[in-house]
Amino acid sequence: MELWILLAFAAQFLYAVSILIDKHIVIRARAIGEPAAYAFFSVLFSAVVAGFAPFGFVSWPTWSLIGIALMNGMAFFTALFTLYSALKIARASDVAPAVGGISALTTIVLSALILHTDVEGFILPAFLLAIGTAIISHFHFSRSALLYTICAGVAFGSTVFLSKLVFERTDFIDAFFWMRMMGVLFVLSLLLLPQMRAKIFHSAKQSTRGAWALVMGNKVIAGAASILFSFAVSLGSVALVNALTGLQFVFLFIMSILFARYMPGMKQDSLTHGGWHTGVGIGLICVGLAALAYTFA
Fold it and tell me: Has this prediction a pTM greater than 0.85?
């Protein structure tokens, strides 16, 4: 099997771990669980990639690369903010599959319209994986939760697509560095907004050390997933890599059952009540994976 597919598998496992912790934080961590503040700090912590710079790995980018990387950072913050907003008012077992499916479909559409050849040979497995992921959600959404979920899916899909455009313009380390730095620059600019600044500073002051430790640990997990996922995108089909988000649900399904007794809210959020949505969704994911295996046979 191709290396980039294995990297995508590993990334989805780590993302599943991270999203369960995210769910716990936005419900239980009080101030820092405020979606806007949590999204701000999540992007800000990605500044650790600046550590690459002193070792001479990073070169100065073109203006077009900076522009795309900045759009990527804006989309990434929007994706995190809307995802955390959805997780705060809806079940992770509903939100995660729907966001994943919408994200995958968004990437497929953008890739077909702009990259053209990027989905060649992968359109059927990517489509099956995306649809299967989307319908796994039980659709137990309020109107606001549905809106946040759709926005998060479109924003994540746009982020992945923009990442592919950056990777096509430079090497992996430079691309990853500038996307993260432009994201940090964007969230720092949000401090110019008085209401956002007050919300972020309040969250920083009111949150406990334990909450910060949990956030930092989770960002390490999410960061590792991001690196693996980005590397997979740089090597292979962006549409197919993002369609493999369906695997995240499988991991989430298992972990939500295993850790239901240890994490508040997870028992009610368990995926064991999935009904026909779960059966049909998993069936389509399996068919999609089979189609993928046949493609590389």
Answer: no
